[in-house]
Amino acid sequence: MTELFPNSDPEEIDLPGGELLLYRAADLGADPQELFENLERELAWREEPIQLFGKRYLQPRLLAWYADAGVSYKYSGIQHDPLPWTPQLAVLRERVEALSDARFNSVLANLYRHHRDSMGLHADDERELGAQPVIASLSLGEERMFRLKHRHRKDLKPIRLPLASGMLLIMRGATQENWRHEVPKQSRPCGPRINLTFRYVHTPPV
Ligand SMILES: O=C(O)CCC(=O)C(=O)O
Ligand SMILES: [Fe+2]
Hints:
Layout: E1 11-13, E2 19-23, H1 32-42, E3 46-52, E4 55-67, E5 73-75, E6 78-80, H2 87-100, E7 106-112, E8 119-122, E9 135-141, E10 144-150, E11 159-163, E12 168-172, H3 175-178, E13 179-183, E14 193-199
Antiparallel strand pairs: 1-2, 2-12, 3-4, 4-7, 5-6, 7-14, 8-13, 9-12, 9-14, 10-11, 10-13
Bound molecules: 2-oxoglutaric acid (AKG) and fe (ii) ion (FE2).
C-alpha cells in the first residue's frame, strides 16, 4: 500500500461533518513569494461575470482557469473553457497531488487584488466534481481570512482560518455537503493574494 501523506503530516482541523487538513508551510519546491510573483505576472487573469438571480455582475476578484484538454466546468453559472497548464502550474499540481494524496485535472486561480476583493459564501459541490470531492487550496501572497459556516447546525460557530502564504488547505470527505466557505471583504487594507484551488472535474458529468 502506498503511504498516505509522505511529506510530513498535515494538521487536522476539527470540523464536525467534514474533513479539513492544513499544511502550514507546504513544501512547494520554491519560495511562496517567488511563486506569487510569477503567477501574478504569468497567469491570464480575467474579470469574470457571475450570474446571480438571473442578473450578471462582475466577480470581485480576478480569475484564471487551467485544466487538462477536454475538461470544462460550469462555475457560478458560467461555462469556463480552460487554458493549458503553464510549466509553473504543472509543477505545482505535482507537488499538491503528492501532499494531498489525490489527483487533479484542473485548477481555478483567484487573484484578490486588495482587501475589498472577496469570494461569497458557497460550497464546491457542482455535479462535475462528484461526491465528496477532494479540493486542495494553495494560498500565496497576503494573508486573508477563510471562513466556514455549517449549512444547518446553528449551534456551531463559524470557523475562522487565516490563510497565509505557503499554506495548503485540503477539504475532503463531506465538507462540501455540510459546510459552505467564503473569503470576506475586510476593512483593513492589504495587498494581493492568489489562491489556487486544485480540483478533479469529471467529464461528462457523473
Ligand atoms: O480563496 C480561497 O481561499 C477560497 C477559494 C475558493 O473557495 C474557491 O475557489 O472555490
Ligand atoms: Fe470554494
